[in-house]
Amino acid sequence: MAKSESELTWKDLELGCIVTEPGSARQYKTGAWRSQRPTYDFKKCIKCGICALFCPEGCIGQNDDGTFEADMDYCKGCGICARECWPRVITMVEEEE
Amino acid sequence: MTTRVGIEVSIAIADAVKLANADVVAAYPITPQTHIVEHLAELVANGELDAEYIPVESEHSAMSACVGSAAVGARTFTATAGQGLELMHEVLYIPSNMRLPMVMTVANRALSAPLSVWGDHSDMMAVRDVGWIQIVVENGQEAVDNVICAFRMAEDKRVLLPVMVHLDGFNLSHVIEPIIYPDQAEVDKFLPPIKYPLPLNPDRPVAMGDFAPPVIYTETKWAQEVNIRDSKEVVIEVWNEYNKAFGRQYRPVEQYRTEGAKVILLTMGSFSETAAVAVDELCNEGQSVGQIRLRLWRPFPFEEFRAAVKDCDILVVLDRAISFGGPGGAVASEVKAALYNQTKRPKIVSFIAGLGGRDITVSGFKEIVNRGIEVARKGSPNEYEIYGVRE
Are strands A90-94 and A36-40 parallel, antiparallel or unpaired? Predict the structure, then answer.
């Protein structure tokens, strides 16, 4: 993307606001919406990836050691990963803590 | 090919869609529009029109299917009326901002409650702001011609917008009129195959209908406004081209006996022809009366309208819908707004009549014009008058 959304004028818009390049959602960082954030006790992680499967934002990726972790630029703090993680690796905490 | 055939206007409209060689028709039947899509279903079933006919479960679905169809670059048509147009309402805003060309005929009908299948312009006025180009026709020939023109306007690369063609329910949709069918080869020449520039295509993926946060929404809306405003030039160009090819001229504001007229009556739709007879009679009786008909409702033809009324003293406006608790009819509101900043402007008198299929006769129009002249001279305590209501 040549320009970010805040730089685009009305004349820069593609026909019908059609998005012609994939991956534009990457620019839209939703992490600031969060009121809670996930914390991890990685010792308990069995690397099953169920958190990543359930994440509605698709922002959970696998670390080099095989554990899973959310990208905090996009994590909205919904807590679904913590609810689904049955070994209880993930605990949601208030952002201000 | 100038043979006239006597045919129901709805059937002729369906035949015009066939002449335009539509690819997709997605529609739900509703009175008084049913005969249009019914005949299209026959044409597709008989193999006379090579198109996909999608019988959907509601008008909301009809318009949604049309959005999808236009998005893959197919020539798309639907038709509706009254409650059906209202059920579509939410979806109508989608193709106009997404720049998806399609054509819809609306057989104008009053809105419930109370239930009325008969004609007025309530449905048309309720969709004023959905961002479609909107054309109003007065007879069957105009409906046929403008359906063909509408496809070319919609699909022009400078426009790429959906177009509504309004025709009065029953008064036009269900009457048999003499129609000149344009020749297929001539229509093919006038209306080249659709070439939508960014269709949905797995080989070249695009995303349509994404969301716009506050940082960009205003820009998208201004782009849309400039787009429809600029479309007027193309609308006029297409009508001029149509005249060259087929010999019938259409204009954003049609004028009748307006030269030197002190009083002008403004009408829209099929009642305009009855009103024209009243204008003739008033002129014969020595009055200075002319008529203008708004053909292009959106984009509103400000320049053409102002030029048409610049020399008259009194403008009598007929609306066939009420803006409840508001300043009168939507048409009168708009023409008042269009003239407010003009240094020389006529007195404007607003009438509402012809609701829910009630007729306005020639003598009725004469009464409206005469009462308009009286109100303009003496003033009135009301924003508008309703004609013909039993006290």
Answer: antiparallel
| Contact flag A20-B226 (C-beta cutoff 8 Å) | no
Average pLDDT of every residue of chain B: 97
Q: Do A28 and B213 touch (CB under 8 A)?
A: yes
CA B179 to chain centre: 19
- Of all residues in chain B, the percent with pLDDT exceeding 70 is 100
CB pairs under 8 A between A and B: 53
Domain tally, chain A: 1
Q: Of B212, B215, B223, which is closest to A6 when you measure between CB atoms?
A: B215
Whole-number Å distance between alpha carbons of A19 and B109: 38
Contact B219 A19 (CB under 8 A): no
- Residue ending a domain, among B246, B266, B294, is B246
Structure tokens at A72: 């905090």
- Does A6 reside within a domain? no
Q: Which residue of A has its CA nearest to B93?
A: A16
- Tell me whether 0.90 is exceeded by the ipTM: no
Q: Could B220 and A10 be called an inter-chain contact, meaning their C-beta atoms sit closer than 8 Å?
A: yes
Q: Is B291 helix (H, G, I), strand (E, B) or coil?
A: strand
DSSP SS3 for B256: strand
**The two structure tokens encoding residue A34:** 């969060």
How many residues comprise chain B?
391
Contacts of B70 (CB under 8 A, 6+ apart): B76, B95, B100, B101, B102, B162, B196
Q: Taking residues B103-119, what's their average pLDDT?
A: 98
> Cα-flanking dihedrals φ and ψ of residue B145, to 5°?
-60, -45
Q: Residue B368 has what pLDDT?
A: 98
Print burial letters for A15-50: b (CB count within 10 Å at least 16), e (below 16). Answer: bbbbbeeeeeeeeeeebeebebbbebeeeebeeeee
The H-or-E segment that residue B350 falls in is strand B347-352
Number of domains in chain B: 2
- Identify which of B205, B215, B220 has the shortest CB distance to residue A13: B220
- Of B200, B220, B246, the one marking the end of a domain is B246
**Is there a domain that residue B275 lies in?**
yes
Domain residues for the domain of B308 are 255-386
Q: Which residues of A touch B99 (CB under 8 A)?
A: 15-16
User: Which of B99, B205, B212 faces A15 most closely, judged by CB atoms?
Assistant: B99
- Tell whether B391 is covered by a domain: no
Say what the pTM is: 0.93
* Other residues' Cβ atoms within 10 Å of the Cβ of residue A97: 7
CATH number for the domain harbouring residue B93: 3.40.50.970
* CB contact B56 to A (< 8 Å): no
